[in-house]
């Protein structure tokens, strides 16, 4: 559709250079391992500098930990929440829409630095890409939201409804920041989580449940190996059975938004550890992984299915029958979530993407866990995932995002805000410089 004069003015006010400069500043903070507070303080100051109403608060971690949707892997002593609001002109009691733009500042660790071609905690601009930890997942997407809202302010656009920007912590290890924002009342009529979807509109996310299995053994001197019980030997059939479980689960009829995924509900064993000494038979082995689950699947049933597979293997082995594997569900427990693809949020975002980029956005589900499930299941909001970057680059050395995708995302978000929240007038002329 043709852009209105207000929409054209807002797009002209987008400051891509400012976006890249802000990304350089935010990526300089190492926000892995629970170290998000300095970045959150920067986000609060930046939002306030834009003229947003800012709520910055200390998270009540003991209270959050009592919530049934709370999960974590990192043991934080403190954390802060930051939410910025661009308030609309409609009265609070009106039916005007409020749009939430949600992004997390935390990142996974950089890993082995020698595998990076650029410093992980800096924004390195090279060949049309920004490299660094968090470029894609998801400091780039979060700052696209700030850039879009700033363009509305600069252009003097007047909204009927309001826009909230959630800057949250702890998404990578369970989602405590988004849960805290919801509990504090920072909700709306719909939400966009700015995950790296490659600008795909994703009205569904798979679930991801962390688990840990301990396989008992019996220690013995390595020279007397036959007198011990090697848990590595017993791990192998358990691992193979879980591989077969993954195959069976992904061969079942799929949710329509995951029909094109080769492996939408992956079962991954990410860590295996055993033993205390090279010449000692290990006394136990522990392996940890994640179980992917479908949007329309009961998480309790999925857990029971995995437990049943472990039990079936144990019943066939004399040692494991007497010393069964110990299963624990720990850390991040990302429930699945889905939004009706016909919801006004989805159709508005798709139209905005088309008008912002000249290309239709693909629509399908994402196979990874995200804070979408909290916004849908606890916040009661229709929610989609949409943002710049490829999840294949996230969590890897030389993580990057295309500059062109940052610009496209900022443009699409600006149009989405205007159309979803009712931006129809320009109240004044404001320079974009």
Structural notes for this entry:
With 433 residues, the chain is α+β, with helices and mostly antiparallel strands. Helix content is 35%, strand content 22%. The protein is built from twelve helices and 19 strands. The chain has helices at 5-12, 16-27, 37-50, 61-65, 135-155, 176-183, 231-251, 299-315, 318-322, 344-357, 372-377, 403-421; strands at residues 53-58, 80-86, 98-104, 124-126, 129-131, 157-159, 162-168, 190-193, 204-205, 207-216, 220-221, 267-274, 280-281, 284-293, 326-334, 337-338, 383-385, 400-402, 423-426. A six-stranded mixed sheet has the order 1-2-7-3-8-17, with helices on both faces. Strands 12-14-10-15 form a four-stranded antiparallel sheet.
State the gist of this model:
By secondary structure, the chain is of the alpha+beta class. It contains 12 helices and 19 strands. The strands form 6 sheets. Strands 1-2-7-3-8-17 form a 6-stranded mixed β-sheet, with helices on both faces. A 4-stranded antiparallel β-sheet has the order 12-14-10-15.
């Amino acid at each position: 559709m043709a852009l209105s004069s207000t929409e054209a003015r807002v797009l002209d006010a987008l400051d891509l250079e400012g976006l890249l400069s802000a990304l350089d500043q935010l990526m300089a903070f190492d926000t892995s391992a629970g170290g998000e507070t300095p970045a959150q303080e920067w986000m609060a100051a930046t939002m306030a500098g834009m003229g947003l109403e800012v709520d910055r608060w200390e998270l009540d971690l003991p209270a959050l930990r009592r919530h049934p949707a709370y999960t974590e892997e990192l043991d934080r002593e403190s954390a802060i929440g930051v939410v910025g609001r661009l308030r609309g002109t409609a009265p609070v009691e009106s039916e005007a829409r409020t749009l939430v733009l949600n992004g997390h500042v935390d990142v996974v660790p950089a890993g082995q630095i020698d595998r990076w071609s650029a410093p992980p905690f800096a924004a390195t601009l090279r060949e049309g890409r920004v490299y660094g930890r968090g470029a894609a997942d998801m400091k780039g997407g979060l700052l696209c939201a700030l850039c879009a809202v700033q363009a509305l302010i600069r252009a003097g656009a007047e909204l009927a409804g309001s826009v909230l920007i959630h800057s949250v912590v702890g998404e990578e290890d369970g989602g405590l920041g988004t849960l805290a924002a919801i509990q504090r009342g920072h909700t709306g009529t719909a939400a966009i989580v700015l995950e790296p979807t490659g600008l795909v509109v994703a009205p569904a996310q798979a679930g991801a449940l962390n688990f840990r299995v301990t396989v008992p053994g019996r220690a013995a001197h390595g020279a007397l190996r036959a007198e011990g019980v090697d848990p590595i030997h017993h791990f192998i059939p358990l691992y193979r059975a879980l591989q077969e479980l993954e195959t069976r689960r992904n061969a079942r009829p799929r949710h329509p938004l995951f029909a094109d995924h080769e492996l939408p509900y992956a079962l991954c064993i990410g860590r295996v550890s055993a033993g205390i000494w090279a010449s000692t038979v290990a006394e136990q082995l522990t392996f940890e992984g994640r179980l992917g689950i479908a949007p329309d699947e009961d998480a309790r049933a999925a857990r029971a299915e995995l437990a049943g597979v472990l039990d079936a293997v144990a019943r066939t082995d004399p040692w494991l029958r007497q010393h069964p594997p110990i299963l624990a569900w720990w850390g991040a427990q990302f429930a699945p979530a889905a939004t009706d693809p016909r919801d006004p949020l989805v159709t508005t975002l798709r139209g905005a993407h088309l008008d912002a980029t000249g290309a239709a956005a693909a629509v399908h589900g994402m196979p990874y866990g995200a804070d979408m499930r909290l916004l849908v299941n606890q916040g009661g909001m229709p929610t989609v995932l949409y943002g710049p970057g490829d999840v294949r680059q996230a969590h890897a050395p030389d993580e990057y995002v295309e500059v062109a995708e940052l610009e496209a995302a900022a443009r699409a978000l600006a149009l989405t805000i205007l159309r979803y929240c009712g931006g129809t007038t320009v109240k004044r002329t404001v320079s974009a410089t």
